[in-house]
């Protein structure tokens, strides 16, 4: 009954790659370098935002709910 159905050859499962990929030291060093660059960009961008958020949470009266004031308010020297 189903012997007359033609299957497109491009839909047939293909074998895996003929040669196995070799992951050498250079591959892992490039991955580590890419991760380090991405992490440093993200950390550099988000740390100042977190500092402002923390200041606003610790002293909401002083920073008056606006992030701009939290970044421009000078710190008073104690004593």
Automatic annotation (TrEMBL):
Membrane topology field: Multi-pass membrane protein
Domain of life: Eukaryota
Residue spans crossing the bilayer: none
Record localization: Mitochondrion inner membrane
UniProt main location, coarse: mitochondrion
UniProtKB keywords: Membrane, Mitochondrion, Mitochondrion inner membrane, Repeat, Transmembrane, Transmembrane helix, Transport
Presence of keyword Transferase: no
Gene3D superfamilies named in the record: Mitochondrial carrier domain (1.50.40.10)
Family note: Belongs to the mitochondrial carrier (TC 2.A.29) family.
Name of the featured protein: Uncharacterized protein
